[in-house]
Amino acid sequence: MRSDSVSSTEPASSLYAAREPIFPKRVSGPFRNLKWIILAVTLGIYYLTPWIRWDRGPSLPDQAVLLDLANRRFYFFWIEIWPHEFYFVAGLLIMAGLGLFLFTSALGRVWCGYACPQTVWTDLFILVERWIEGDRNARLRLHRQKKMDFRKLRLRLTKWVVWLLIGLATGGAWVFYFADAPTLLRDLVMLNAHPVAYTTIAVLTMTTFVFGGFMREQICIYACPWPRIQAAMMDEDTLVVGYREWRGEPRKHSEAIKAGEPQGDCIDCMACVNVCPVGIDIRDGQQLECITCALCIDACDDIMAKIGKPRGLIDYMALSDEGRERSGKPPRSIWKHILRPRTIMYTALWSLVGFGLVFALFMRQDIEMTVAPIRNPTFVTMSDGSIRNTYDVRLLNKLGEPRQFRLSVRGDPTLRVQLEGTPYDSIKVPADTATLQRLYIVSPGRSAPSMAANTDVRIWVEDLGNGDRAYKDTTFNGKGN
């Protein structure tokens, strides 16, 4: 049921009905205040993070959070992720999914109602709309006004310009994560930035403008798959926003009241409907459209306080408590609903993945290597009878300064190492760089006849500056006996 809907001019038999505009009313209360806090924190993080500086040394970028696609690197404060370490990103995505399952199982669609980007930017756009056009009744009158006079045009254009500026800031903040923010901003202003930057900003500006300003709840209802998936994450112990029908019914002006039954606490004031950002009536029960924002709780509690009734007619509740409350017993503790086998399992899995990522992060070495044997040919017989195998060794120096790396081989005491391009057994690898080095392992001619066809060897790399070491196992190919 929607009191703020605009009557459609389409015939009742039409298969597709026009969208009914929703104009949420301003409301105050703890849940609305919590949403304001989350909005300010999340938008502050999004817009300001690219401007945080972090000193990594003279040869590395000083932006705290940077997705450096050109150099295939991800920087997050003191953490640097290389392409072959994508498992860290995969682990974070797994943690995000498990966290979403956990919160949905415990508290329903709290992500949708409080922290989803669509919800956050829609709240911001509605706030701007309310500042410019007034609260719900004023916006309704303006919308129903058929004539486009100067005042309506001025209010509309002012609102749209502010929305576009928010969208522009949103797209601009996004591209700043992929390049040095001050440099890119200067290039954007001077029209020297790459066309991809302008295209990305334009696309994100328009999608933010359209999604937050015009589509709003339609994104949540029709475009987002989560409302259809969430049912698998919820059960009768999940705390969701609901209406205590056994306490609120019968309502004012209902047939039951006319028949002489005592009236329930609900006075049918429509406050819960008027503040709902998706335009539903929570008194009709759980609905796919509900994003669990809890604004209806604030609105209803305010009305209950004014008429001298207990708060909580609309509240967070669990289906399993309905029988207890109908019989006059208090509901079970919130913690008994939250701490149950399903949520404990999600928490354990989430913690296990997080612990694994932290352990891998702190156990990884500052130097790494990969070894690729050259198979064509598998070995070469030299003029003196010695056997030579060729390998491509890639050395990764993750430190912020050049390092001298020494290469050696273990496995057969007669084997020796030669590096292409240098008579020494060590090479200098620049800071924060991967270097490809051609390496030869040679078996002397006098021992060649006794060499096995395949001998397991281990190639070591040692940082001569601090003694850190790494190795890779491979195979040396010989003639055989």
Structural description of this entry:
The structure is a single chain. Strand 13 and strand 14 (469-477) form a beta hairpin. The longest helix is centred in the middle third of the chain and has 26 residues, at 150-175. 41% of the residues lie in helices and 18% in strands. Helix 4 (117-133) packs antiparallel against helix 6 (150-175) and helix 4 crosses helix 8. The chain has helices at residues 30-48, 87-107, 110-115, 117-133, 136-144, 150-175, 181-189, 195-215, 217-223, 226-229, 245-248, 255-258, 271-274, 295-307, 322-326, 334-338, 341-363; strands spanning 65-68, 73-76, 79-81, 240-243, 314-317, 367-373, 380-381, 387-397, 403-410, 416-419, 426-429, 433-443, 454-463, 469-477. It is built from 17 helices and 14 strands. Strands 6, 7, 8, 10 and 12 form a five-stranded antiparallel beta sheet that branches. It has 481 residues and is of the alpha+beta class. It is elongated.
